[in-house]
Amino acid sequence: METKSRKLDAAKKAEAEEAEAELQTNIVYEDDKYVLPADDHETLQSTDLQVVQARIQEIVRVLNNFREMREGNRSRNDYISQLLKDLCLYYGYNEYLMEKLFYIFPVSEAIEFFEANEVPRPVTIRTNTLKTRRRELAQALINRGVNLDPIGKWSKVGLQVFDSPVPIGATPEYLAGHYMLQAASSFLPVMALAPQEHERILDMASAPGGKSTYIAALLKNTGMVFANDANKDRTKSLVANIHRLGVKNAVVCNYDGREFPGVIGGFDRVLLDAPCSGTGVISKDASVKTNKSEQDFQMLSQLQKELVLSAIDSVDANSKTGGYIVYSTCSVTVDENEDVVNYALRKRPNVKLVSTGLDFGKEGFTRYREKVFHPTISLTRRYYPHMHNMDGFFVAKFKKISNKIPKKNDDSADTVEDEEFTPITDDSGKRSRGGKKDTAAKTEEVEKISFNPEEDDELIRGKFAILLFVWLFNYKKEKKETANFILIFFFFFFFFFFFFSNVIYSIASQAIENSEGYQASSKEICINTL
Ligand SMILES: C[S@@+](CC[C@H](N)C(=O)[O-])C[C@H]1O[C@@H](n2cnc3c(N)ncnc32)[C@H](O)[C@@H]1O
């Protein structure tokens, strides 16, 4: 009897607590069904996060079992629009960004994503294999009381730091360049790029150099890394990291990436870790939640599209070991990822997507809301904080098939159909009259805008002849008679002389290219111009 009465008391108490909670959270049920609040205005004025959170949970519950749990004739949109408002209020995003991110995921997963953005990601470091090995580095840090573990099976150089009694960015090992403080996600594009020793690689947007220095380490300081960044101030930290980590094969330059391959081209591989909105790194920079407008996203997407074409055009399709381009962002929005890749496939039919070689990550979207993308975009990879416990990231890898860019007539469509491309040009790049009628309609002409060493040689030879003229006229001011003699001699034997300069030039350039000092000296020139 006593036990029964105690049970009744407990049930009553639970009911009372539930009623109190309902009162506090404004959750109202009718016939066991959650009732959406009627007055939106009142809702938006509510600042009680507990109320908002409870409502979010209820709406998610209804949306996950909509047929059975919806109230009367309420539509899915009614619930979603209330949910979006509540999510903005609860997590502090602007409405535009909230909607953009919300639709990337199924409802429950979207909440997990927003929750994960509230929690810091693990601190990770990358062993600099130019100076040490992971096991030795781990031991050295453990001796200082650092609690760490390998990052995961997928990386041989990463360590995750759980806690440390010393600042991890100021240990003697850090100062000696034995490691780089680097987010785990930031390893992925370099792993996808898979640089091979002795290759020439361009890192188009490289500051502060986390990826450039990783590329240099994989190259074992052979070949060359062109570490470029448009922001001159940021190249200071890039240079500092290059020096600290003992990188000896890097050239630092400061161009707008869109100027490549006009600056230099013919690379074996190009990494474009593009400037982006940072929606993958909100846990590091919460200002992203509110400081990005629709216009910002449009501008970023435009810049990314221009940069990716430039990256593609900077690669030599005939590279014996490479011919690859990796495009990555630390953003999860479709505009900055699949949309950009799809645009590149449409504008550059001379590239195709290939596997990133990364054995985890979610497939890129081939469809997103009203958009349909090229089916091979499933080869790209997405990374999420709630799923992979790393920053949100995107990685795509292209292989360049040809240095010729077939132009399409129809640029209007935003999506790519899976069409076969048949060039109507011969191997020398000349336009051919042949080809099927329908193919001819799709292709216009061949443009060859990538790096061409022969064209460059001709330019340099032309400059050589002009310089010779200038020198002779200057010399004439000092030694008139001798100069007159040389000038007459020069005019008489102009064609013979010009021919000779070509021969001298060829012999000299061959000798320079073969000499060991070639790379070191060009590196010095570039670094000193900063
Ligand atoms: C995501 S960050 C690069 C991070 C770098 N890859 C790393 O791992 O340390 C993007 C960089 O792009 C640079 N950038 C912005 N616009 C650019 C442009 N038009 N050309 C080249 N770099 C650009 C920015 O200055 C910024 O340093």
Automatic annotation (TrEMBL):
Query: Could you tell me which residues belong to the region Disordered?
Result: 406-441
| Single GO molecular function | rRNA (cytosine-C5-)-methyltransferase activity
| Protein location | Nucleus, Nucleolus
One BP annotation, GO: maturation of LSU-rRNA from tricistronic rRNA transcript (SSU-rRNA, 5.8S rRNA, LSU-rRNA)
* Location of the SAM-dependent MTase RsmB/NOP-type domain: 113-401
Domain of life (superkingdom)? Eukaryota
Q: One Pfam family of this protein, by short name? A: RsmF-B_ferredox
**Could you tell me which SUPFAM superfamilies the record lists for this protein?**
S-adenosyl-L-methionine-dependent methyltransferases
- Provide GO CC annotations from the record: nucleolus; preribosome, large subunit precursor
Compositionally biased residues, Acidic residues: 412-421
Its predominant location is nucleus
Alphabetical list of NCBIfam families matching this protein:
nop2p (TIGR00446)
Its protein name is Nucleolar protein 2
